[in-house]
Amino acid sequence: MRYLVTARIRPGRRAALKRAVDEGSLGRGSVAGDEYLHDMAQARELADGRVKWVETCFCATPLDEERPYWEAYFDLLSIKDAHARSTCRHENGTEYWACCDCDCTVRLEARLKTEGAALDLSKPERAAD
Question: What is the pLDDT of residues 84-100, one digit of tens each?
Answer without folding.
Answer: 556 666 666 776 655 55
